[in-house]
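Re: that chain you flagged

S.,

Sorry for the slow reply, it's been a week of failed gels. I finally had a moment to sit down with the sequence you sent. For the record, here it is as I used it:
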Amino acid sequence: MKRPPLALGAVLSATALALTGCVEGGRSSTAAAAGDGGASSACPWEADDSITGPVRLGYQLLPSGDLVVKDQGVLEACMPEADITWTQYASGGDVVQAFGSGSLDLGTAGSSPTVRALSAPLDLDVQVVWVQDVIGEAEALVAKDPAVTDVAGLRGARIGVPFSSTAHFSLLAALRDAGLDPATDVQVINLAPDAILGAWQGDQIDAAYIWDPTLGEILADGTKLVSGKDVSAAGAPTFDLSAATTAFVDANPDFMEQWTRAQDWAVQMIEEDPAAAAESIAVQMSATPDVVETQLAGTTYLRAADQESQYLGGPLGPVLEDTAAFLHDEGQIDAVAPVEDYTAALHTDAVAAVAVS
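Prediction finished late last night. Pasting the structure tokens below so you have them in one place:
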């Protein structure tokens, strides 16, 4: 596998999400915008009531600024005339399917499913509009048998992972680096995050590569073998990315600028008031704020200016091409597009506008 030209070493702290002592789990963005549940209902800058029309947003339960934006109702407050709908997806593969079916305008998916969307045979007309985070300890490969202490020890094992996710990409990379053939030396099983927990508890799988909160559940009686941090250091970095259809981006520049401003505002909160950011994220993830705050402290979230210069301004393109090369080798995509195609799929107008404002 060709190694990426960037040194991308952001790390998420290795902490399991507890499901007890949670704060107001299930608070919705609609309730937040209405002032319920304790979330802010005021736009942090001048609201724009000229933005109208339906907007379909997809999100995942990840410790990111996107959940701060959702919980605080920022988009609803800053674009009060827009009809915004949030839909939760279990994995990036589901987000890509939603793009393919035309049922989503903008959503968060990992770098692996995003590259699949941009590559043959899907060739979806989408653009990367924001880097939510670089995945580190928040995704990991966990073995059930305490006698298994490294990836090589999984020979013959049944491993659960959501297919077409960043975890799937990282699992294939980890197996390859350990000298195991994913097709013959192990049995890789496609399972959704909640199904992984059931299969783990029922002894139907021997290992799983997954993210929180399922990761925290299986770590209680499992052994972590490698994480996204380790796989990234070995040359296969993964990201949580927000993407939007080109048609939506082109038709809604004002919305894109407001959405990007909200994401930048959330990153600023993570940097300057991590306790407040952690509470919002914890509400959405049904987790405890102290655990989320520990996760936030272990990673780097980039403001708009850094997004433009370090990622969306071009350097991310070759990394996506390298991801595509790996996925092609594994039979996940039909062909690797030219690096220019992946670079052209990086939308910079909104981050550039927010960076200078």
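What I noticed first: The longest strand covers residues 126-134.

Talk soon,
D.
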